[in-house]
Design a protein that fits this description.
The chain is mostly helical and 233 residues long. The protein contains twelve helices and three strands, in the order H-H-H-H-H-H-H-H-H-H-H-E-E-E-H. Strand 1 and strand 2 form a beta hairpin. Helix 4 packs across helix 5 and helix 11 crosses helix 12. It is flat and about 60 Å long. The chain starts with a helix and ends in an 8-residue tail after the last helix.
């Protein structure tokens, strides 16, 4: 509750604001407590506000970027993992009112839940403060955490990009091996090892596909940091 007060105070919003209350109410909580509202409508509104802010930002930031690349970059900025990262940075998750069943399944930790929460929060800010203030807040947040959004293009498909690079330059393909599979059926955990030439990376995820994605993303970023893969690839 104290963190919610801090957020409300930062934006000069009443902590009792109905919009703020709705933004932090998950549908599962609304069902369990027979409430007539949840954050889904605000999520819809926030998504639209976010899209126009990101579109303008990329248009001005990259004067020579093509329409296709702007669309891809905007999608990367607004994707589930990116928005979940921003929600975690703002510590929004613990403030979400969520049903017991959903809570037990790790709802507040899931990227999808956090991304939806972030969009709902943006929707609430828009209704409370107007577009100009929300735009200023979003741009500050994006510039801090994603100073060069073009880099996110590689992160949209790290497995594909890594394989493309390795085939072009080394005539090899990455090899993925499941090291272990643990956890209950409703919350499995996969650990996958990626081997490519002399390089190794380990990724973890709730599915084999996600674990492979994370391993590829780690190795791709490492190779780019080492200068093996150039930034413009």
């Amino acid at each position: 509750m104290e963190h919610l007060k801090q957020i409300a105070s930062k934006f000069n919003i009443s902590v009792k604001s109905q919009h703020l209350l709705e933004a932090f109410t998950h549908r599962s909580y609304a069902v369990e407590h027979n409430l007539s509202y949840d954050n889904q409508r605000l999520e819809f509104l926030g998504d639209s506000v976010l899209e126009i802010v990101l579109t303008e930002h990329l248009f001005l930031l990259y004067p020579t970027m093509t329409e296709g690349d702007m669309t891809k970059t905007r999608s990367a900025l607004a994707c589930e993992s990116s928005l979940a990262l921003l929600a975690r940075e703002m510590k929004l998750g613990p403030l979400l009112r969520i049903g017991k069943g959903e809570q037990g399944a790790g709802g507040v930790e899931r990227d999808s839940t956090l991304a939806d929460l972030f969009e709902a929060f943006i929707g609430a800010l828009y209704l409370e403060l107007g577009f100009s203030s929300v735009r200023e807040f979003l741009l500050e947040l994006i510039k801090t955490h994603f100073p060069d959004p073009r880099q996110l293009l590689q992160e949209l498909n790290p497995k594909g990009k890594l394989q493309e690079f390795s085939q072009q330059h080394w005539n090899e393909v990455p090899h993925y091996t499941v090291l272990r599979h643990s956890g209950p059926q409703h919350m499995p955990l996969y650990e996958v090892e990626l081997n490519l030439k002399r390089y190794t990376a380990i990724g973890r995820g709730r599915s084999r596909k996600q674990a492979e994605f994370n391993a590829a993303a780690l190795l791709f970023q490492f190779l780019r940091h080492q200068g093996v893969i150039k930034d413009d690839f």
